Amino acid sequence: MKTGLSATIRSLLIVGTTLSVVLGLLFLLFRILQPFLFVFLAAFILSVFLNPLFIYLHQRLRLPKTISATLAIFVSILVVSIPLLIIATLLISEMSNVLAFIQANVGARNELTQAVYGYLNQWGISTQNFEVEVNKYVITTLGFVSASLTAILSQTFGLILNGLLTLLVTFYFLIHKEAIIHYVSNVNLLSQADTERLTSRATEVMTATIRGNFIVIAIQAVLGGVGFAIFGLSSPVLLGALYGLASLIPLVGITLVWLPAALYLILSGNLISGIGLALWAIVSNLLMDNVVSPKIVAGETRLHPLFILFGVLGGVQLFGLFGIILGPTIIALSFIVLEMYRQLLHEQGHISRTSNRLRR
Fold first, then answer.
1. Using one digit for the tens of pLDDT, what is the confidence trace for 260-306?
2. SS3 287
3. Per-residue burial over 286-321, b = 16 or more CB atoms within 10 Å of its CB, e = otherwise
4. For residues 10 and 17, what is the distance between their CA atoms, to the nearest angstrom?
5. Residue 197 and residue 68: Cα distance in Å, rounded?
6. Of the residues 69, 175, 233, 319, which has the fewest C-beta atoms closer than 10 A?
7. pTM of the full predicted structure?
8. Separation of alpha carbons 246 and 233, rounded Å
């Protein structure tokens, strides 16, 4: 009895010690890799998006894995950088127009200033010190912008380093994809088929979400730019680009762009143009949110638009910008896990019924 008890205690001590060592090593591994979690996350998403091109180069063109991965990454850099350079050139041109407008109108008693003063006087607000307060606000804002730009420039080296590390990790994710999936399937409790099913579904949802969001941003940017041009606002390319990027922010994103623009038109005396721009933005956004976006994103991911909405909202709060992709992906994977659990219960019930029949 004592021998059996001592053997049990010894086994528990061995298991406890082993578990403590494993958990301790995993904790240390997490702390070591924690500063680079953003890099691994970005590399994983990028590798999922580049995998079809990598497969085409490797399997169809018979190129080696290393060359296929290098070409896939190089093509992705070109596809992203060339449009960005074109857009940046247009934005710089538009920004020069905006700065010229600000220099010509700030501090001058133009129609917009008179209109603002008129509205303030109607509400009983004194305008005697209004310009002084505005100048203080402008100086404070410029100081904040200057400090922000300085901080961004000081972090440029870190951003470049993280970008290079992301490309490097993406390279290894692409060439070692099968080995990674095989290893994960061996260390988890799922079968090879279930692991491949989860991986396939994650890839499908992430690719569809990325592609869908790019299409939505492009359409929103075009709609916004056309609207700003029609209703007489200067710098429609700049405003359209901001409009498209703001569409990534759920619920209130584009409102942050079109509402100030519409108020500017109204206060400038262009009441019809201001109302027209507001109606253009509201109607086009309703069509995008309720007709176009669900068909583009929800249709490809095979998720209900409501789950897409809450997935994006919750994902952004938890993961930041990557939550736009990870939120819907996690929801889709959760449904697959629940379906696997349902099938497991069904199989166990079938086995139990078969066993009872054999006993009879």
1. 888 878 877 778 888 888 898 888 888 887 777 767 766 666 677 77
2. helix
3. eebbeebbbebbbeebebebebbbebbebbbeebee
4. 10
5. 25
6. 319
7. 0.62
8. 18
